[in-house]
Amino acid sequence: MxxxxxxxxxxxxxxxxxxxxxxxxxxxxxxxxFTLADLGGGLMSKGELTEAVRLRRLQFEAIEHVExxxxxxxxxxxxxxxxxxxxxxxxxxxVAHSRYTHVYVEREGKLYLAAAQGTPxxxxxxxxxxxxxxxxxxxxxARLDGADLSGVEGLTEQGLAAAVTDEHTTLPYGSGxxxxxxxxxxxxxxxxxxxxx
Length: 197
Fold this sequence. Notes:
Layout lengths: L3 H16 L3 H7 E8 L5 E3 H9 L3 E16 L2 E14 L2 E16 L2 E11 L15 H4 L3 E2 L2 E2 L8 H7 L34
Parallel strand pairs: 1-6
Antiparallel strand pairs: 1-2, 3-4, 4-5, 5-6, 7-8
Helix pairs in contact: 1-2
């Protein structure tokens, strides 16, 4: 049966192998049927991940392990954690804050990573302090479900972000925040990252 320290050691080995582009270490750690559900929603096999790392299509400059919780179910360990990732995929840089789940299985006394899944934590989830009021200039063209918000006193960015919930909401051009740059229509912020955990 695996113990907590063994799982944390395997976690560190996985992150170190990604940052160091150590495909041999990845090959030793991952099960043959390993799958990664990446930050963009795609699936990668063990072969696809190790090949992307080997060819430097996927490069990690840093993986900061923020937290993790380990649970055991017999010889299986499930890790839920958070990371901050910095790297590039196909030459496009990315920075991502991720919540992840890793599933480790024990075989002949050794832990192997069988599955990994990463979910991006959008920067729009980190709301500003409640006293951060929007300027009149930023609200001069803002509309929420047809209601003119121009000149509304005391409206906070937090309040506006919480109120914006559908695709029909329009905001001033280039308003920033959780809205697509240069867009007048609210859209969910796309993941800027490539594959990750």
